[in-house]
Amino acid sequence: MRDTSSSWVKRLFFLLVGTAVGLAGCGNSPRDFEQLDALIEDARERSQMSAGTAIVVLKDNRVVHEAYFGLEDVQADKSVNEDTVFYIASTTKAFLALAVLLAESRGEISEDTTLQELFPDLTFPSIDAESITVKHLLTHTSGIDNEPLTWSMSYTGLHTPAEKRLGMVVASYPSEGADPGEFEYSNIGYNILAVWMDRHYGRDWRTVLEDTVVSPLEMSRTTGFISVADDNAWPLAKPYSYKVGHGREELYLKKTDDTMYSVGLLATARDTARFVLATMNNGEIDGRQVFPAEVVEKQRTQQVETDGGYFDGYAWGWMTTEQYKRPLMLHTGGFSGATAAISYMPTEKIGVVVLHNENGLKANTLNSIVQEAAYGAALGLSDESVSAEVADTIDWLEKASSDARARLEEQQEARMSKAWNMSLSVSAFAGVYTHPLAGEIVAEENGDGQLELRWGLLQGTGYPTDEQDHIVVDFRPGSFDGLSFRVEDNVVSGLSFNGVYFER
Fold first, then answer.
1. I need a surface site. Which of 17, 211, 366, 368 has the fewest CB within 10 A?
2. pTM for the full predicted model
3. Beta-bridge mates of residue 335
């Protein structure tokens, strides 16, 4: 019978960190990471994770370990391997930020270039575009927000043609969550810079990224276009979530060429590792100086402190923190059916790539487990407190996964049994609701007396809440966003979603 007790995991991790060779030695051998693989398998099995995981560990100038677990296609029982292409989500920010800094090194732009200078012919009626710089946009300190831009470029795909994106950019407004100069993580700065790149170069920013970052690194299975991956018959990891079908049901919401626009790269774990390898080695890879060392060194300099959480500051497209009291550069990313984490220790020349085709609890926790275990092994650590902490994390994940399954079933049952709290009949709320930038939300009553909603590439079911004329809708699989209808004189006149008003 398999021993899944906490003590077994502690012994496993002790072997992992206790047998690793230190950096001053001859380097790690494949055997040093056998226990790491066993640790990952145990965490995945105990949390009942079916979707895939790919890991690559780097040290000095080479890959010292890579491993693949689970399935890229659960229904077809197709395993993840070195050719599997994952959506790497917001880890794309590190790539885009590097492309902007490379443009700065060529004299095309500066960190002090203002938003107004980026778009000199446009007027920004609600913000001071002269006070917002490229640095603010890249470091999440612009103090601006833009829900129509965010939802259109991330989820609905309703941001074409290019003129519409420009109209969305100029409609930006002050953030309610942070003043200018304060850190507030979002996609907005990167969305705006992607729009600028489209216009500045006269072609899609993703082709610019491929020319300036991806191709020089010889990342042969990396692209910003799903259509390219499909045309080349690359095996794409299908999206799953622990919140939907216990992680075994393919999600309807997938990465397309029009969604997650500014954070849209797809890549294999091997390709992603080449980017990390070059970055942690100051722009050098395979004996070639691919990027100027001073540009890469600048990219890792912290620009702003954050309020805690799992990172302490933000550089240029990289989060900054510590692991085992060593500086760690990190970026994570997530989307419907995708989770990614890339990181490296600049002082130790160690890096880790972790990619999953599942989002949420299990994938996020596995990122932490892999990061702690892989760096511990590569550093040659043997602290029992580390093994105990990893064991506790796996124990917690097993219980949290079980609790989450029960809780999700209870929540769905409660949503289905809740009575509608609407001032009019459900059919009265059916119709087309329009916003000049965000597009149309179409609401229709289905055969079960529920509202079905469509918004560009999004679709979802509305569920009642305790608040009158207010529903929650699962546009994003497993997540529920609030939506309020406006009723005036017994007539539905519009709806509000995330602060954006759509008129009927």
1. 211
2. 0.92
3. 338
